[in-house]
Amino acid sequence: MSGRPDPLDKPAFRPGLWRELRDAFLSPPRPLSCVQMEVTSACSGRCIYCPDTSLAGVWRSRAMSAEVVAALWPLLRRSLRAHLQGWGEPLLHPRFFDFAAFARRAGCRVSTTTCGLGMDEDTAVRLVSGGLDVVAFSLAGTDPASNGVRAGVPFARTVEAIRTLQRIRKARGGVHMEIHIAYLLLADRVEAVTRLPELMDELDVHAAVISTLDYIAAPGQEALAFTPPITPEADLRAARALLEDAAVRARAAGRGFHYALPGPVPLPVCRENAAHTVYVDADGTLSPCVYLNVPAAVPPGHPGDRRQTFGSVLDRDAWELWNDPAYADYRARLSAADPPLACRACPKRYEENGRN
């Protein structure tokens, strides 16, 4: 830390007991469900499907400043959750735990998603004592071979990280925290998901959230995605059957298992819940979701050329940005028959929830 005052330590950011009680019992419901904060876009992994890898020459690795986090206070005070993760590995940020504490002071539940490379006992202790209620670990397979696309992030290392956090959580009575697996289902290795319930049992994780590849970072990666109408319906049915079977087995063991796959037609809703969530990149720029704000100089015509931003919290009050007519209109159009061009072909518009 330099000799300058810490932007996060202003008295206005420390609500007193009376204000906390008033907010808990007398304030109206918070209008936002989540503020997703890209604390950093830097990552040590080189997953083949990530734009950090395929766009390495034009990728912008940057870290969120305390000034940006402080400027998010108006949004955080109106949000139920702050999720600290974007296009990078959040635990690389030296002030990750300060940012998590700041979001908790704003009254948010706080969660994160990590690859696990930086997990050790000290980090695990700080995660548990820091009050995070969900820590998710990224996987794209259930053994070293199927997870091999996550170059630089060995399967064994992620499993070790989960075990470390689980051991510390139990030793310290961290009943407030759930450990999840954030599982990326790739179309060329769907069978690996059949082993996920057993892996969940082995690691005693609370839940798995299965997603598919929604952002095509380079030409040719369409084969890894479930993209209507490119993906044959027979392939979708087969994947859905595998997921349904895995879900039954996981839920029978008392574990959460959440998934979605694209259907044949778009739905009148954005599964990213952009009407009630906001993505803030490391520079403080607002977007409806992470896919519309990739930190790279993507050339025109590139499959990932979909950038849509609505101002920076360093230039204007964050809540005013959220309510700006242009941003509000964009969110409203996501539920219309003719959504914005950048979102029109997004797989998230086609996704149907799995059976409960």
Describe this structure in words.
The protein is built from twelve helices and twelve strands. Helices cover 30% and strands 15% of the residues.
Write the layout of secondary structure elements.
Elements: H1 17-25, E1 34-37, E2 46-47, H2 51-54, H3 66-71, H4 73-76, E3 81-84, H5 96-105, E4 109-114, H6 121-129, E5 134-139, E6 150-151, H7 155-171, E7 178-185, H8 196-203, E8 207-212, H9 233-252, E9 256-262, E10 277-280, E11 286-287, H10 318-323, H11 325-333, H12 341-344, E12 351-353
Parallel strand pairs: 1-3, 1-10, 3-4, 4-5, 5-7, 7-8, 8-9
Antiparallel strand pairs: 2-6, 9-12, 10-11
Helix pairs in contact: 6-7, 8-9
* Rg (C-alpha, Å): 20 Å
Characterize the largest beta sheet: strand count, sense, and whether it forms a barrel. 10 strands, mixed
**Which residue ranges are poorly predicted, with pLDDT under 50 across at least 5 consecutive positions?**
none
Given the C-alpha coordinates, what overall shape results? globular
How many beta-strand segments? 12
CATH H level, superfamily name:
Aldolase class I
In CATH terms, what is the architecture?
Alpha-Beta Barrel
Strand content: 15-25%
Helix residue percentage: 25-40%
The CA-CA distance between the termini, in Å, is 48 Å
Number of helices: 12
The CATH topology turns out to be TIM Barrel
Average pLDDT works out at 93
CATH class: Alpha Beta
* Helix-strand pattern: HEEHHHEHEHEEHEHEHEEEHHHE
Q: Pairing-aware structural class of the strands and helices?
A: alpha/beta
Provide the domain count. 1
Quaternary status: single chain
Spatially, the strands of the biggest sheet line up as: 11-10-1-3-4-5-7-8-9-12
